[in-house]
Amino acid sequence: MPHPASPRPPGVPAARRPELPPVHDSVICVAAPCLAISPEHGQLTGRGIDGVYRAGRRLLSRCVLRVAGREPVAVRGCRLGADRASFSATVRTGADPGPDPDIGVERVRHADGTERITLRSFTARPVRIPVEVLLGTDLAELASVAAGAAGAELPAAVHAAGLRWSTGEAQAVTAAEPAPDDALASAGLLRWQLELGPGESRTIELRTTQDRVTRAGAGQVANPLSDAVAEGDDPRAEAWFRTSVEDLGALLLRDREEPGDAFAAAGVPWRLGLAPAESLWAARMALPLGTGLAAATLRILARSQAGGRGPGAGKIPGPLRGAGPQLPPGCTGTEATLAFPAVLAEARLWGMPEDEVALLLPAAERCLDWLRGALGADGFLADPDPGPRRCETQAHAHRAALLGAGLLDGCGRPGGEEWRQWAAALRERFRTGFWIDGPDGGRPAAALHPDRRPLPRLTGAAAHLLDTGLLGGGRFAPGLLDRTRTEQVARLLGAPALDSGWGLRSMAVREPGHNPFGHRSGAVRAYESAVAVAGLAQAGFEKEAAGLLRGLLDAAENFGYRLPEMFAAEQRTLGSAPLPHPAACRPAALAAAAGIHALAALVGIRPDAPAGTVAVVPLPGAPLGALRLSGLRVSGEPFAVRISRLGLGMVEEAADALQLGG
């Protein structure tokens, strides 16, 4: 995703953004704040963005292996998990006649800077093999590397069983086990002479850290997400769910102010940090894995909330974010502020402890107070102010009001009925001001200009109109649209103009300015596609929901089940495939959470932990066949549910206090 846009004085042209290096064909391992970016052949050459990073600094940029005087022939590179990857290669030493390789090489590289190099002999007699590893680094910041401004490699010094590099502000150490037979600091070279008998293997372990100790760093964050698993008729669902859970866990970072609180970083390599709206929505979509991530993310954002009594009081700060060529940048702080009470309300229904809810309730009330004072004279919420009234912003505001009302009622606080009336008035204004009639049934405007002129673009943001949010008793909140217009939006979301066959486009094909690689102007965004699946399912449009779900699963398979935050997709045809966006984050928190959200929507879990009930309402037709999700969390206890091939749901494990509803 492009970097967030920054405000600039009127009349000053936007500076040209530096072009981000392509990473779509990189093998990326992450265990935040650790990151390893490798080419598919596995050799870190010291060029481009490849390297081992920690907290945004490159600790190792060059790690070139030579066996018997030559670089191994790469045969495969693949991820083994969110935090590690394997690179297979072969070497022909000439010990045996013929074209066959006689040495196999397996490198397993971890995000934390550990790499294990295993050599296996296929020869019929003992061999003595020289092995060399060339190491180097510039200790550059990732931002400098991305901008092409990294410096030259630093001189190395011999350190214990390896090499060390340092500047005035940083250092890196690579230690080896077994210790090398020779270490040449001037060349950044470690050497071994390995003796291998027939069929024998030897392993060299490299450990790159920021200090002088010889062991790699331990795990970073206590993961609040449950180890949930999926299994069923379609094995791809299991792989997608597993990868989504692993990637989201690998993106967790500690809050600097309160290290006990963790949040999901937006994505790697470009945005390994807090993005208020995205981190909060990822936590919301991960609620089936427990409420811990949502609670921690809400606490972090509550600490940043603006105080005082001015017009900005109660708002959560956030940077501007590019919105494509049709609209000016939007404010992620607005989105996070509207999401806060909604996520807290839903987390309470999933079983967030009442004492944790009580501590966060004042911040949610301040968000609602900000919303009350932020409406323009026309009764809509500008984003930013003054600026366009975006379609999805009104949907977020409406959801915040209704879920906030339920939260206030459930916690014994006043104001619930007032907010329900506020939401009803917004529904009336929206249906009058935002709907554009037409012979095909009409469409919602993408936005209203400040002078109330509609922007008649058909965009994927319409999916947010169907994402109304969960209320108590397994009920969904009413939407901004009446039933007739809801049906029309569902038809539009399921039609080829928006449904590429691989997911939902961010802008319809024939709209002016459509760009299949455009972040908000045509690319498929995994998060918005999952929002559409869930919204269509809850509104009863199973055909459209199932079509988008299957397309998103097919796209996930094409990307090794690690969906990028966005990708390009022309209309699907036989033999076609989605195309990677060269600069997209992968993994990204929202894309990872999208897999959890979409499959949970298929199962249809509707909890109300305070009332002690849970309902399961699966998507009719069982579009992926039989499916079982286990290891989920409802009311803080394990929860497992099975969907049959006939689309019937059955709870297999739940907290004793929960009553099953319909």
From TrEMBL:
Stored Pfam families: GDE_N_bis
InterPro entries xrefs: 6-hairpin_glycosidase_sf, 6hp_glycosidase-like_sf, GDE_N_bis
Top-rank taxon, per record: Bacteria
Domain Putative glycogen debranching enzyme N-terminal, chain residue ranges per copy: 32-207
GO process terms (BP): carbohydrate metabolic process
Name of protein: Amylo-alpha-1,6-glucosidase
Source organism: Streptomyces subrutilus
Upper lineage: Bacteria, Bacillati, Actinomycetota, Actinomycetes, Kitasatosporales
